[in-house]
Amino acid sequence: MFRWAHPEHLYALLVIPVLALLFIAMLRQRSKQLSRLGDNSLVNQLMAQTSQRKPWIKMFLLLGAFASLIVAWANPQIGSRLEEVKRQGVDVIIALDVSNSMKAEDLKPNRLERAKQVISRLIDRLENDRIGMIVFAGQAYVQLPITTDYAAAKLFLNTIETDIIPTQGTAIGAAVRLAMESYTGNDNKHKVLIIITDGENHEDDALEATREASAAGVIIHTIGMGSVEGTPIPVYRNGGVSEFLKDQDGQTVMTHLDETTLQKIAAEGKGQYIHSTSNDDGLQAILNQIGRMEKKTFGTKQYTDYEDRFQYFLAFAVLLLVIESIIGERKSPWWSTLNLFDNK
User: For residue 98, is it left (φ>0), alpha (ψ between -120 and 50) or beta?
Assistant: First the structure.
């Protein structure tokens, strides 16, 4: 396993192209100054022993040494021991609604982006729990299988948009059933499903799916996004809102938060319903309940010992600097006598 002890130091490598440009500019300036002394052929005869190649060689050696020093500063490390670490937690799956109604802007910047912010904060506050993600609209898909890699969870979260599922609708029941298939292990505890949606279920019997999941030991929480009063669904073109979504009769479609459905789902799933607002996302109440749940023990493989490898790059940098110091500005006598293009 490879990693950098200080990856932020690698940004110093961006200085190398700047130094190379400065060196090239210096050589050009030097050439212009020499041309002012007189005829170029005469100047070349007077400086016959001055090498034209060695300054370039010395530049590459210096830049290579500098790059090696930066890599050594970042300290590359190799994982030397892999062991299984025991952790205790619960399996948390987040089912996120990505239907078009989640574009509504009654929460800023819109319902979907607000939901992604909620999920990101949830990931930050998890400790030993495993996390998975499901996205759903007219159908449901696994976005991230259950994992302990929180960094990967945030990476996958950033890729979620309303157009990743072509079939529109809000199939909460399909998301619940897919979550049941995604949990690992045969135990009937330690499983949490958090559904984040505006609750407008049009596709299936979400309550029946919730009863099945609850019977299997899954605790289901719901977080409602949006306003009960309703708001239009914007249609984006060229980076901005061009109009609002209309139905077949030309009437503007209004999307409402269906709190009743989400409250029923949470009640059937023995969880909590939270209405996310601009001031409160309700995470703490859900996290408190997760914290009170019985934990299960599971193991993860990870490298626990890392060996430094900076010394190799440091030695290489010293070697390049020694070679650079040995090389002079003048031509080598034996090289001057060598004429590869002499046909005589």
Answer: alpha
